Amino acid sequence: RFGNVYLARLKKNHFIVALKVLFKSQIEKAGLEHQLRREVEIQAHLRHPNILRLYNYFYDSTRIYLILEFAPRGELYNLLQRSGPLDEQHTATIMEELAEALTYCHNNKVIHRDIKPENLLLGLMGEVKIADFGWSVHAPSLRRQTMCGTLDYLPPEIVEGRTYDEKVDLWCVGVLCYELLVGRPPFESPSQSETQRRILQVDVTFPPSMPEGAQDLVSKLLRYQPSQRLPLAQVLEHPWLKAHSRRVLPHSAQKAS
């Protein structure tokens, strides 16, 4: 929206990166200077195989340039648009990778707040890369009150304007799991007010095609009370996920470097 992304190759070693070019005038007009600064500060310090690397940045009088890891398979959103719902193996693999990455974020006091298919890229082997930290926040106390994120993925505490913590990301993981398997988010409705009502009532309907194990996982993540949501450590140990995930990264690469 505020710039373009180009494929670039470093002269010294021919290493391929994505070069994101942002226009200062557009960012200033939208009042997003602080948000961009925060995004750069957070992403530049994160080191995890399932988080897109921000290698460096520079700027001139009119533009800001972000040097990012190249994810050759593009957005998860585009994959869903092309192929429709994913199978159990693909979905469970994404859930495991995402849970590992978010565990790392939370351990570093970072709340993402906007997990959705558009913000997840796919690496060379199809592995997930959390790519957009525009709504992320480094909160040492892990407590916030800002309204943010995408409506279909907003948890009840944000819809109601209550104080929230890192458990907002658990809700988003549940919504994502449902969308990957069904092809649409669970609270999607014709109007915003109806979507908000369904979120607040946790009005979820599981289609017969959705596997029982996945239903169990999603139902344990989509809880009105944040304290009742399944912790990430237990997500990783969930029987459905363990039975179907085919994570491509070797065990030694699963930890942050």
Automatic annotation (TrEMBL):
Its main location: cytoplasm. One of its GO terms (biological process) is cell division. The active site is at residue 114. It comes from the Eukaryota. It catalyses: L-seryl-[protein] + ATP = O-phospho-L-seryl-[protein] + ADP + H(+); L-threonyl-[protein] + ATP = O-phospho-L-threonyl-[protein] + ADP + H(+). InterPro entries: Aur-like, Kinase-like_dom_sf, Prot_kinase_dom, Ser/Thr_kinase_AS. Residues 1-241 form the Protein kinase domain. It is found in: Cytoplasm, Cytoskeleton, Spindle. There is a cross-link at residue 116 (Glycyl lysine isopeptide (Lys-Gly) (interchain with G-Cter in SUMO2)). ATP binds at residues 1, 20, 69-71, 118-119, 132. Its EC number is 2.7.11.1. GO terms for molecular function: ATP binding; protein serine/threonine kinase activity. Gene3D superfamilies: Phosphorylase Kinase, domain 1, Transferase(Phosphotransferase) domain 1. GO terms for cellular component: spindle. Keywords: ATP-binding, Cell cycle, Cell division, Kinase, Mitosis, Nucleotide-binding, Serine/threonine-protein kinase, Transferase. This is non-specific serine/threonine protein kinase. The lineage of its organism: Eukaryota, Metazoa, Chordata, Craniata, Vertebrata.
